[in-house]
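Sample log: ADP-dependent (S)-NAD(P)H-hydrate dehydratase.
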Amino acid sequence: MLLTWDAAAVRAAEEPLLRDGAPLMARAATGLAHHVARLLRGARGAVRGAHAVLLVGGGNNGGDTLHAGALLARRGVRVTALTTVAHPHAEGLAALRTAGGRVLPVPDGDLPAPVRDALDGADVVLDGLLGLGARRGGVRGPGAGLVAPLADLRGRAGAGPLVVAVDLPSGVGVDDGTCAGPVPVADVTVTFGAPQPAHVLPPAAGAVGDLVVVDIGLDLAGPPAVARLEAADVVDLWPVPSASGHKYVRGVVGVVAGSAAYPGAAVLATSGALRAGVGMVRYLGDAPVVAAHPEVVAGPGRVQAWVVGPGVGPDDDVQRSRARDAVARAGSHGEPVVVDAGALDLLPPHVPPHVVLTPHAGELATLLTARGAAVSRADVEASPWEHARRAHEATGATVLLKGPVTVVVGPHGAAYAQADGPPWLATAGAGDVLAGVLGAVLAGRAADVAADPTLPAALAALAALVHGRAAHAANPGGPVTASAVADAVPATVAALLGGTAR
Ligand SMILES: NC(=O)C1=CN([C@@H]2O[C@H](COP(=O)(O)OP(=O)(O)OC[C@H]3O[C@@H](n4cnc5c(N)ncnc54)[C@H](O)[C@@H]3O)[C@@H](O)[C@H]2O)[C@@H](O)CC1
Ligand SMILES: [K+]
């Protein structure tokens, strides 16, 4: 599991070490220079003779970058520092100059020709404008003028420089993953001590690239902020049937899905549940689910978890009433419920955390707006983490917000950000499959869910992980259909449980 700590926790961990005189900046710069050299060797076969351009801001992030530049210069790299403040880190600047690095001040406004030429000729650009000290609003001042030219250079297919973010892509909201202004997009981010929420939360996570953590000796004592489940975590969470387990012990999922307009949603949600290895699926509705899946039992009966809402239309009073009943039962009897799509407007004022909402950004905006906050889809997309949290706080439910990075928020600080699926996964019906997979894992672990209010969040992240990986497996590198994603779930689970996955 990848754990992150917020800026205050990282600073608190640094503080006693700095008081004792531990050379944290030297450790950070040494690790940074090591990874930049490794990347240069990989990209061009040699470190010596490469051209590194440093984007230098006014704080210690710029200091790390200048010191790393000095180390690279000593290894034969031609280093140019583009300084965006009048007084960059003094020691770092002196070290770079002593090592033979060149320094070019960047003014406000148009970039002078030598600055443009330096960027044009760079093999690697180190983004050291802002790190932990970034205040909300993106990069301001002369540094902001470097972001667009850098993006243009990266756009040159195969010919642009490698971009390495120092600690964080400059200007991201460290604790909430927002990008309120222009942010340089990195190929690799080298962070120090511990990852932070912005490394995993959208939209900032999209600017991080590959994440490398350099150990500078921090002891992160407090609770982590946002987690990301990895392949190795699946075996601890997935409901694996015991040899003696019968179908009721393995979990029965009740599905309330589909309507005349969207019968396919019911088939896909049911596919997701079946392929994830549930004991049995009971289907309530008129869609041709049993024809598609003969193993499904039509009609009511005992279930361990519900999936309600996929393809349920706003005028379908019968399905809506069934969905409403399932959500109400979750409050009184404790069966977990996945509430998706057409059932999201049926929530009572407050529900327990084993009610898991699975909206996309537009649906979350509608849900929050219905509860008195004027929120647009764009607001949610700009700050998915904040809005998922608000939805959890407003409803009590565990919230899984779908997107390129799926964010999950539950009670007691349970929080996950999963980036497992390819962009191809943004396809009709994929969300129905996810709802089914999540219903299956909730049913399979219903007894544990009753005992641990944070478990639904972990299981929601688990379902997102498996769903995303199934999309990769369905057609590596190419388009997928929702049905193909569902079909890939059993082998994906087997690989993850068998330890054959990466
Ligand atoms: N504290 C420590 O001992 C360590 C810090 N390290 C580095 O230090 C960084 C944090 O350093 P700082 O606290 O100096 O902060 P930063 O270097 O992130 O930035 C602070 C500076 O940026 C300015 N600034 C803030 N928001 C801005 C914006 N939106 N646009 C333009 N300028 C803005 C501030 O006025 C200040 O001058 C970490 O990210 C890491 O790279 C590492 O050297 C490891 C050890
Ligand atoms: K940075």
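Observation: The chain has a mean pLDDT of 95.
Observation: The chain has two domains: 2-227, 243-498.
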